[in-house]
Amino acid sequence: MKAKEFDKRFDAGEDISAFVDYATATRPNQKMKRVNVDFPVWMVHALDQEARRLGVTRQSIIKVWLADRLNREAV
After folding, report:
1. Domain range holding 34?
2. Looking at the 3D structure of the chain, how many domains does it have?
3. How far out from the chain centre does Cα 33 lie?
4. How far is the C-alpha of 69 from the C-alpha of 71, rounded, in Å?
């Protein structure tokens, strides 16, 4: 099936799950790339405190806050 036909069926609300191989499916721009960032100790402590308060990891809170800021700056 060509992409136009797939999109047409999807937009029409049809069940397209039979046409998707979920084992090999990927989301665009979602590939991870590891980066290293050095933070002052006080900032790590503050991040950890907020992460504990929210019940998430330090990495999660950093990702969410950065994504929020990047989205605001893009407008």
Report:
1. 3-74
2. 1
3. 12
4. 5
Token pair belonging to 10 = 């999807």
Alpha helices in 26-57, H assignment, sequence order: 41-54
CATH assignment of the domain containing 39: 1.10.1220
Within 10 angstroms of residue 57's Cβ, the number of other Cβ atoms is: 13
pTM of the predicted model as reported, rounded to 2 decimal places: 0.62
- The Cβ of residue 47 has, within 10 Å, a number of other Cβ atoms equal to 17
For residue 71, give both structure tokens.
């989205």
∠ CA 52-65-48 to the nearest 5 degrees?
25
- pLDDT value for 61: 96
- Confidence band of 50 (pLDDT split at 50, 70, 90): very high
pLDDT at residue 28, as a whole number: 85
Per the CB < 8 A criterion, the answer to whether 58 and 65 are in contact is no
